[in-house]
Amino acid sequence: MTAHATEAPTAAPSAATQHAAPTLRDAFHQPKSVWAIAFAATVSFMGIGLVDPILPAISTQLDASPSQAMLLFTSYLFITAIAMFFTSWFASKIGVKRTLLIGLVLIVAFAALAAGAGGVEEIIGLRAGWGLGNALFISTALAAIVGATAGPSGGAIILYETALGIGMALGPLLGGLLGSVSWRAPFAGTAVLMAIGFLAILVLLKKEDRPAHVSPLAALKALSHPALRTLALTAIFYNFAFFTLLAYSPFPLEAAAAAKGGEFGAMGIGGVFFGWGVALAITSVFVAPILTRKLGLIPTLLTVLGLLAVLMLAMSFAQASMPALITLIVIGGLLLGVMNTALTETVMEATDLPRGVASSAYSGVRFLGGAIAPAVAGPLAAATAPGAPYLLATGTLVLSMLMLVIGRRHLASVGQHHLSATEEAEAITTGDEV
Predict the structure, then answer these.
(1) End-to-end CA distance of the chain, in Å?
(2) What is the distance between the alpha carbons of residues 288 and 249, in angstroms, rounded to a whole number?
């Protein structure tokens, strides 16, 4: 799939240039169309953590339980997961640019409607539509930004990584800043920013050549591949823990502050998860590639999963200490960044399936794990103890390790060759599209 920028045409880069190590000059010397996609991508990734700081406020002001408030993540992630199985087929039918624009229109519409919603049930439904738009956008944005670049593709991917990292870090911070005014403001702000991104892509990105046809069932059929199935099962249990930390943690933070006679508030939660996002971005881009080269992919995965299990166990006993919770959340970001990149790089190396199809299948399954976690964490905490969701997440991380060990015989090809600089960059960006 190839998209073209509106600037004067340039000579197509040679195969050698495409696989050369990308430089900072390659990354930031890009056509306006690439910058337009990067801007929209930044806002899209911001939307993932944007609601995190306002969950307690939504719970309080809309008379909703924490369990209901966390369903904002569940509806969003569940629809994203289902859509991910079919986005590669959809893009092959109508093209990358149209898929991007449809995704952005859906995000703008449902985010704007959420800003004016009157009840938590309404927001939960609107977040589902938002999830559909985000699935269409994030599944095609990487292909679009590579297709629109005027130089080596690795440079454009580095720019995309940068957009991703900024979005993951700034999402909770913007959510906290706007959420301190009103819980409606983050939704309205996202709608405005995404509308700007829509206009930029509409004007600056030209329609691409006719894409290759993809079967609507290609991603589902891909799960019959033993290696991909092993990694998808590993990911679904891992993502349960990931979204337990992300979606549930604002409530223990608020409770710990209240126990000391204070109020943490949207800005406080946003600041904590800003640190979490920065930590995740740094380790995914800079630390994960070093660890996977030195230790190997499978040992890195098993080591980080074990450390995450220990961290979740510690969080289950740290409910009364706000400093301890904050520290553990930020450390969790460091570990999650490594895990995301290493797991996706393993998916890329483990199969000979087309990358887009393998990514759609893997992403669809792992997002299901993320969708289940918020739906389970709230009721479990209400029925037992505040630390129980973290204990359950500890168990799912152990199961994730078990899936990896049991299916290791299907991963014999992993580590026999290392990805090129461009392929490694693609693994980072795909891995962090949580």
Answers:
(1) 23
(2) 25
Burial of 98 (0-12, 13-18, 19+ CB in 10 A): middle
Cα separation, 124 vs 101, in Å, equals: 23
Q: Which two tokens stand for residue 269?
A: 């939660």
Residue 152 exposed, middle or buried by CB count within 10 Å (0-12, 13-18, 19+): buried
Kindly calculate the radius of gyration of the chain based on its CA atoms and give it in whole angstroms: 20
186 contact partners, CB below 8 Å, separation of at least 6: 50, 51, 53, 54, 174, 175, 178, 179
Q: In angstroms, rounded to a whole number, what is the distance separating the alpha carbons of residues 71 and 69?
A: 5
Tokens representing 43?
């806002």
User: In the predicted model, is pLDDT for residue 162 greater than 90?
Assistant: no
**Residue 50 is encoded by which pair of tokens?**
């944007």
- 391-402 burial, b at 16+ Cβ within 10 Å, e below that, comes to bbbbebbbbbbe
The single-letter DSSP state of residue 222 is H
- pLDDT value for 195: 93
- Angle made by CA atoms 311, 314, 315, in degrees to the nearest 5: 90
Residue 29 makes CB contacts below 8 A (sequence gap 6+) with 150, 151, 155
Q: Alpha-carbon distance 45 to 427, whole Å?
A: 16
d(CA 136, CA 142): 11
C-alpha pair distances (Å), 263 with each of 250, 252, 258, 310, 384:
12, 12, 6, 29, 24
Encode pLDDT of 169-179 as tens digits: 899 999 999 99
If one counts every other C-beta atom within 10 angstroms of the C-beta of residue 19, the result is 16
Per-residue pLDDT of 77-117, as tens digits, reads 999 999 999 988 898 889 889 999 999 999 999 999 999 99
- Measured at the alpha carbon of residue 194, what is the angle toward residues 357 and 140, in degrees to the nearest 5? 15
- Per the structure block, which two tokens stand in for 326? 């904050």
- In angstroms, the CA 137 to CA 133 distance is 6
Query: What's the pLDDT tens digit per position in 139-161?
Result: 888 778 877 776 666 666 667 77
99: Cβ–Cβ under 8 A, 6 or more apart, which residues?
Answer: 87, 90, 91, 136, 137, 139, 140
- Phi-psi sector, 205: left (phi>0), alpha (psi -120 to 50), beta: beta
